[in-house]
From TrEMBL, chains A, B:
This is Catabolite control protein A. Coiled coil: none annotated. Residues 3-57 form the HTH lacI-type domain. The lineage of its organism: Bacteria, Bacillati, Bacillota, Bacilli, Bacillales. InterPro entries: CcpA (IPR006377), HTH_LacI (IPR000843), LacI/GalR-like_sensor (IPR046335), Lambda_DNA-bd_dom_sf (IPR010982), Peripla_BP_I (IPR028082). GO terms for molecular function: DNA-binding transcription factor activity; transcription cis-regulatory region binding.
Length: 335, 335
DNA sequence: CTGTTAGCGCCTTCAT
DNA sequence: ATGAAGGCGCTAACAG
């Protein structure tokens, strides 16, 4: 039925060790024998069994990726970065959605480990002690991707969310705005949520602008919640002149919510986001935002993981990628 | 170092066969022994090695997915459908991007097969004889996802692209439009490209509208190419009153291109797309489009694959999912 | 440069 | 209900 290395050996008139050598590009094979073996392989249509290989060599050349939701554009972009680099280093990727739900995250970490992945890339919500504990049941390298753990003990690749938010709000302030609303993510989320909220507060504070709780709405990162938040702001006795949204999707919702109310962006109200999703340049006005290099986060974390897997020594296991203010058309000086 | 089934057996004072049985939920184990084994597993922190399991049982409980580009929202949505159902049936997914490039597709098909996946889901560009040939080197079940092969010999799940396009154009005609432009995908692409182009022509033909080559522009599915196409149409001596775009992304580009030229959608020109991506309801005006059930295509094809893998007999191995016209605000009666 | 020989960790008859 | 034993297909020393 299935042709094995043994069949090839017989067909080529050599031992299976030799076949193994040529398949693995071991230089210690006479060119002539190598040729014979290749021919036998061709003739028989032999295909190496990666599972058997994995068992014998204790390496599977596959890495596990736990991701909140592949259908989310941001994470999909990260995933693409991961896969490109993985591919480059001849690794394959096992992808598991975990929806930022702890139990599910822990569960997939375990099944990934059962599958004997050579490494693990983790994107998720909060990284709790339970996560760390799950990680520690194995000794394959693991890197956090687009997150960090509180303790800072694990290798990770992320941006500085607090400063990204800070920079966005500073931009608004630089344009003369003082009454600046924020559409936040859930404060339980350390990165997209809490850190960005902190950045907002810090920017205000540094400029001597009093923090006003009524100017903050917590959204769920989605477009619709941007619309809702802005509807609320528009009812306020004293409207904000600018809105900072923790994510572009909410920012775009905000833009449309404002426009739907008959006001203009940035004429009446300026809007700024964070992320720089593709969509940001697919709306009118084009969204001013702080770019987060999603693809690179994936690529860099995968690259870091390859080093860890090869036991190369890495100088810096916690890397922070740069964010960048992208000025487009949704922010204007205060009227 | 690593604890094996053998260690557990010793610890529990049973044979490894028994441990194997409890791990695999074989009912032929006395409850009491089962308990002993579980305790030993717990105490030792035993984790079954899926690779060894795979070698011995010839089943890996993982399926391969070749996808054009996970960062593309449509495919990401399909992938999510796949993963959800896979998860439900306790399969894991190995994800490979192949960018619709034949050589890369063939290559990943082979590595996936080497990894002994229990089944394969293929999304790609054209399915050539070479693909079929690659598929035939193995006897794991394979289903085409969001594509079909010309010959119609393989299991597949897709929508009827020709009719979807036809329905879109019929809508435009029903609103009184006769001068209808099309922004097409590449005609080499059987599904999103050629079939949709055919649907456009059929709709015109049936209504006795002469086909006018100058009203067709070939784009690359992207937003920017929608803008470019529409710029071209706007230069025409006799402008179209409606635009049919083969994908929503190009349709949205068209909307913005028209708006940027100072015209109104749908006031001056109506626009309709196909796909119903999330973005379609995140623009102004909201995009009228023909919905393609991406998530379901993924889910159904994975479900079909599970049946094939379990050798259940399937009545219908080629399934066509329904598309649906979603009327929103980008189409108006001809002025 | 090539062959022999042990496993890798588990499943799976076949006995008992 | 449980144990013994033979692979699954391949890699990795170790000889020669």
């Amino acid at each position: 039925m299935t042709v094995t290395i043994y069949d090839v050996a017989r067909e080529a008139g050599v031992s299976m060790a030799t076949v193994s050598r040529v398949v693995n590009n071991n230089p210690n094979v006479k060119p002539q024998t190598r040729k014979k073996v290749y021919e036998a392989i061709e003739r028989l249509g032999y295909r190496p069994n990666a599972v058997a290989r994995g068992l014998a060599s204790k390496k599977t050349t596959t890495v596990g990726v736990v991701i909140p939701d592949i259908a989310n554009a941001n994470f999909a972009e990260v995933a693409r970065g991961i896969e490109d680099i993985a591919n480059m280093y001849h690794y394959n990727i096992i992808l598991c959605n975990a929806d930022k739900r702890k139990e599910k995250e822990i569960r997939v970490i375990n099944t990934l480990l059962e599958k004997q992945v050579d490494g693990l890339l983790f994107m998720g919500g909060v990284v709790t002690d339970e996560h760390i504990q799950a990680f520690n049941t194995s000794n394959v390298p693991i890197v956090l991707c687009a997150t960090t753990d509180e303790k800072g003990t694990m290798p990770s690749v992320d941006i500085d969310h607090e400063t990204a938010a800070y920079d966005a709000v500073r931009k608004l302030i630089a344009e003369g705005h003082a009454r600046i609303a924020m559409i936040s993510g859930t404060l339980q989320d350390p990165a997209n949520g809490f850190a960005r909220y902190q950045g907002y507060k810090r920017a205000l504070e540094e400029s001597g602008i009093a923090f006003d709780e009524s100017l903050v709405r917590v959204g769920n990162y989605r477009y619709e919640s941007g619309i809702e938040a802005v509807q609320y702001f528009l009812e306020l006795a004293e409207r904000p002149t600018a809105v900072f949204a923790a994510t572009d999707e909410m920012a775009i919702g905000a833009i449309h919510g404002i426009q739907d109310a008959g006001l203009s962006v940035p004429g009446d109200i300026s809007v700024i986001g964070v992320d720089n999703i593709r969509l940001a340049s697919m709306v009118r006005p084009l969204l001013t935002t702080v770019a987060q290099p999603m693809y690179d986060i994936g690529a860099v974390s995968m690259r870091l993981l390859t080093k860890l897997m090869k036991k190369e020594n890495v100088e810096q296991a916690r890397v922070t990628l740069h964010h960048e203010l992208i000025v487009r058309n949704s922010v204007a000086p205060r009227g």
